[in-house]
Specification:
Blueprint lengths: L2 H19 L8 H11 L6 H12 L8 H18 L9 E2 L2 E2 L1 H5 L1 H20 L9 H15 L4 H10 L7 H26 L4 H28 L2 H4 L5 H4 L5 H5 L1 H17 L9 H12 L3
Antiparallel strand pairs: 1-2
Length: 296
């Protein structure tokens, strides 16, 4: 299969769903809704919602009903980017080739735009009628999965340790803690909610969980590499920002070539975890390859 065509097609579907989920920019109070949409529609690849859709497809499910769930993952991801870019955190001026939300709208509105997106995700997940045919128990399991991945034991915890580690000597377990929480937790959750939505059996759920963990790690190793080797016009943000901030990354521990080898090895293991799935898991396999070979 052509993974670029698949990603483009699914991105269009996700974008249309997001456009319906988020109020128009002129909705009162317009300043916050405009800022929310500014960051949400800044050109993201939609990897997390697409992983949820692909996991559901791997199990043969009808994926129309998963779109609100997939969209909620992107709402949370975008909130995290807005907050990560703030001066109190990573202090970045550009995201996806244009000014970050706080540079465009000011820090106060950027913080509130992030808060709005985060809370809107759970409005979507809990709204009656959003996911027809989804039992209350499965809906609660999906909400819990996403909540845990987004909170202090997931993305928030990873961000805290990442900030506290700047300019300090850390060990490999600490680096892996940061990567598996700050980036990996929501990616893992995306795959698992696709499995939950599709009523995965125990062995299927375990295999998809393993895949999600490995793909999440591979994604962050690839990001670490791109921070050194990427081109600013492709990344849409400053190159070398991790080094300037004194952050430890995979290349700073292992070097570029070994980091590339490890990223490929992790992606191969992710693909191997799907050995008991048929061709319907093809997009998941190709996504693992894409994640480590992308240029932005």
């Amino acid at each position: 299969m052509d993974i670029k065509t698949y990603l483009s097609r699914k991105k269009d579907i996700v974008d249309k769903a997001l456009d319906k989920l988020v109020p128009p920019a002129k909705t009162f109070p317009a300043s916050v809704h405009e800022a929310m949409r500014y960051s949400l529609f800044a050109g993201g690849k939609r990897v997390r919602p697409i992983l949820a859709i692909a996991a559901a497809e791997a199990l043969g499910a009808n994926t129309a009903g998963i779109l609100p769930i997939a969209g909620s993952l992107e709402l949370i991801h975008t909130y995290s980017l807005i907050h990560d870019d703030l001066p109190a955190m990573d202090d970045d001026d550009f995201r996806r080739g244009r000014p970050t939300c706080h540079r465009k709208y000011g820090e106060a509105i950027a913080i509130l735009a992030g808060d709005g997106l985060l809370n809107m995700a759970f409005e979507v997940l809990s709204a009656p009628g959003r996911q027809e045919g989804l039992s209350a128990d499965r809906r609660l399991a999906i909400i819990r999965e996403i909540s845990m991945a987004s909170g202090a034991f997931g993305m928030v915890g990873g961000q805290v340790v990442d900030m506290e580690s700047e300019g300090r000597e850390i060990d490999i377990p600490t680096l892996e803690y940061i990567h598996t929480r700050k980036t990996g937790a929501l990616i893992r959750a995306a795959v698992r909610v696709g499995a939950l939505y599709s009523r995965a059996g125990k062995r299927q759920f375990t295999a998809l969980t393993h895949y999600g963990e490995l793909v999440g790690l591979a994604f962050q190793i690839a990001d670490d590499i791109l921070d050194i080797t990427g081109k600013q016009e492709e990344l849409g943000k400053d190159v070398g920002s991790d080094l300037k901030k004194g952050k430890k990354t995979f290349p700073s521990f292992y070097g570029l070539e070994e980091s590339r080898r490890r990223a490929s090895e992790v992606a191969d293991k992710a693909i191997e975890s799907l050995k008991d799935f048929d061709r319907k898991a093809g997009p998941l396999r190709e996504l693992a390859k894409y994640i480590v070979n992308r240029v932005h």
